[in-house]
Every structure is written in structure tokens, then in C-alpha cells.
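Exercise 7. Given the components listed, write out the predicted structure of the assembled complex. Treat all entries as one system.
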Amino acid sequence: MFLSTVAKYINLSFEIIKTNILTAMEYRTSFLIQVLGMIVNDTALIFVWVIFFKQFNQINGWTFADTAMLYAVTTINFGLVMAFFRGSFELARTIARGELDYFLALPKNVLWHVSISRSEISALGDTIFGIIIFFFAGDVTVEKAGLFVFYVLISTIILFSFTVITQSMAFWFGNFEEAAEQIFHSLIGFTLYPQTVFHGLLKIVMLTLIPAFFIATLPVQLIRNFDPVLTVVMLVYAASIFCIAVIIFTAGLRSYESGNLINVRI
Amino acid sequence: MTKVLTVSVPKYWEVAKVNFSNSTTYLTNVLARSATVVIRIWIFTQLYRVTYAVSGSHVIGGMTVSMVIWTLMFTQGFQTATRPGVIRLIDEEVKSGNLAYSLNRPYSYLLFHYFSHLGRLVPILFANIVIGILATVVLAGPINITGIGILAGIILLFFGYTLDFLISFMVGLTAFWVEDTSAFNWIYQKGQMVFGGNILPLALFPPGLRAIAELTPFSQLFYGSAQTIVNFTMGNFLKFLSVQLFWVVIFAMLAVYLFRKGGRNVSINGG
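Answer.
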């Protein structure tokens, strides 16, 4: 029963994603500009670190190859959430405008449906960039590539869950769109820099309030040096934050007030 | 039809005031922005303290660690005040067709958005800078800032915002010709990130690259002002000001040209 439900959701997700991509590809030039634009965008970002590491060879043992791995992990996990679950980034706006009504009337899980309902096609550019930059992140072996895929997927679940938690605050605060975006920017802020510089209270923030440690630091560390204990820690963390996200969203849904909005979805 | 520049100060003052009030209404958003500023400064403090310690130098490119943090705080504080950006606004107006309604109103479209933009950013800028200064004093320590440095920095900041507006306005207007302007937006943002001193101050660049970066419009947006406030020299101020004014004139001409060209694409139907 459970497995057949999961299979149904996977199948439906695949169909929705396919439709989203095909819709975006209808405007072929725009599609290409967006994907290539994002690759150029990410390349510019990594160029800052080329300059940085030209001036300062390494920071507490962190080299350009580590930054390349960091960007490989974070651009892919970010790209996957944005490309396939863009709706989760717009939850606060959807809630504030009373637009959840549409999803409430349908038989599938509301959080799943609202998240998958939107795609940011440019994010495919992030994912492509992440795969390319992985090859600049030191010695590439089949084993490393396997670990890379595994940890990227786990960190994607964490990123998605964190987004749902922050965006769901709109159930109680009303206008929380900008605030949720800023919290997300703070998270991204942590994932841009050499991870070996963080210490003290800031490290605690990364481990608790803003889980950058689990999205960026730990995956890079584990791809470099596999550790079964830390892998279990990461898995437990991912499962916990996912459950918390679902609980918070479900609790919020109970206090959701319809906007009585009549609109047409095309 | 395409009135681009019509000067009537009281009218635009009111536009700026309305947008000022809008920006201060949502306190949660202002607080969230401020928290982001604090976290950024915290990150920079740890990053550059470790970086300077590893390099074994107290002064790099004429800057101490504290000066680097203060420069970054000002640069990012100035830049983040511009969100939500003009690009998205103009892009939406072009795509939705709302631009057509503005064209026959008794104001210049460009100046209307320019003053709206300034009105919106002032309270956010104020919050960013007050919180930024407090956080930087606590995290990185105070530095010596001169009155003339602040004055010169404010002049450069005003033209920096003008330049940012003109470039953003142009990028937004490209919606007349392309389906999605976000790719140009990202390139503009990342140009700022690389050459605008948002993460790595240009003073820490290798000398050759630094000279090139200082001539780009990206460094003239907010970095010039931040650098002048933190480390004022008359020579640098005049250099920044002249390069900045050059770009303001170029982009003002381009923005007006693009608006007139795009305006021809607008067809207004009665009803």
C-alpha cells in the first residue's frame, strides 16, 4: 500500500516535471538564454574565488579545489530544489495571497503539490554548472562520484525542508515573503565561503538556526573523506528536518484562511 | 508620448515619500534584512581575520582587516538597499502592459521610477547602515572615519544609486525584446559580485586586475563610495567621481534611447 502510493507520487512527479520542462522549452530562445545565463552567472561567482586563491593560496587548509567541490554540491542541491520544487520558494507568497485554495481542493498531498507546481528552468543551468565544476574539484573517481550523488541528494532534502519551514511562517506572520527570502540569502551567504574559517558562535548558528553546515560543510567533508558515523548523523538530521517541515506546514494549514480568490490557472 | 525627462521637483518628492512609507510598513521584512546584514558582516569578519592571519600581514593593499570589513559592510549595505530591484519592476510593467498606462500620465516615466526607487531605498539603507555600523563596531572594531570621507562617500553613493538605477532600468526595458530578462539581471548582479567589491574588495585584487576593475561601471556603483568613506584620499575620490560620472552620462543616454526605442513597440488600444 505504502509502496504503491510512493510509486504513484514518483510517477506523477515525473509527469509534472516533464510537462514543466516541455512548457519552458516551447520558448526555446528564452529557455537557452536562461540556462546559459545561469551557467555564466555561476562561473562569474567562482571567478571571485580564482582571484581570491591567487592572492591567498589556502585558508586553514581550504584550497580552490575545496571551493569548487563546495560550489558543485550547493549549485546542484539549490538547482534541484529550484528546478523541480520551485513552489516551495513561493509558499509564503502563495499563503499570503490565499492561493492555496486551488491545491486544497485536489486529492494529492498539498505540500507536495504546491512545491512541484512550479519550476525554475534556469536552475537547470545551476545543476549543469555543478556537474561541470565537480570535475575541477580534485581527483574524480567512480567512488567519489557515487558519494557526491548520494550526499547531494541528502543535502537537497535538507535544503527543501528548511525552505518549507521558513516559508511556512507566513501562515502565522502573514507577509513573510521578503523575510523568508532574506533568511534564504543568509543560508546562501554561508555556502559561498571557505568553510574552515567559521568558528565559535557563528558555527553554532550554522548548525542550528541556519543549517548551512549540513547543506554545504558536511557534504564536502564527507565526499573528501567518507565517515560512516557522520553519514548517519547527516541522514538522521535530514529525516528530522523533513519531518519538522511537514509538521509545521500541516499545523500552519489548519490556521490557513482562504482568500476566497477566484482565479484561472492556465 | 514618450516623455522621458520632465522636471517638476514637488511631484517627484511626493512619489519618493509614498515609496518611503511603503518600505517602512513591513517591519518583519526590515528586521530580516538587518539580520542578514549582521550575519554577512560576521561571516566576513571570520573570513578575513583568518585570511590575514594565514597571510601573516597586517596590511594588504593598504587595508587592515577592520578596514576590509567596514568597506564590505558599506558596499553590501548600500547594494542590498536596492532590493526589490528596478529590473523586476520595469520588466513586469513592460510584460503586463502597465507601462502603457504610465505613458500618458503627466510625469516622466524614467524620473517617476527614479524617485520611487530612491524613496524605497532610503529607509532600508538607513536600517542597513545603522545595524551594519553597530555590528561592525562589535565584530570588527572601530576605525577612523573622517567627516570629509563621509561627505565624499555620500556624493559617490548618490551617483552610484543613479548609475545602478540607469543600468537596471535598461535591463528591465530589454523585456520589450526578450521573453525573460533574468539572465541579464544575473549577469549584472554577478558583475557586481566580481568587480563591484562585494565579496573581495578591489584593494585586495592583483594590481593589474584591480586597475581594470576600477574602470568598470560595477565598481562605481557602491564600492567607490564605501572605499572613500573608509579610506579617504582626495586623489581616489576624484578618480572615482570622474569614472562614475562618465558611466552615468553614458548609461543615461543609453537608457533614454532604449526607452524611446521600446516605447515605439507599445500599442495602446481603447476600451
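Discussion: Chain B has a mean pLDDT of 86. The longest helix of chain B spans residues 109-140.
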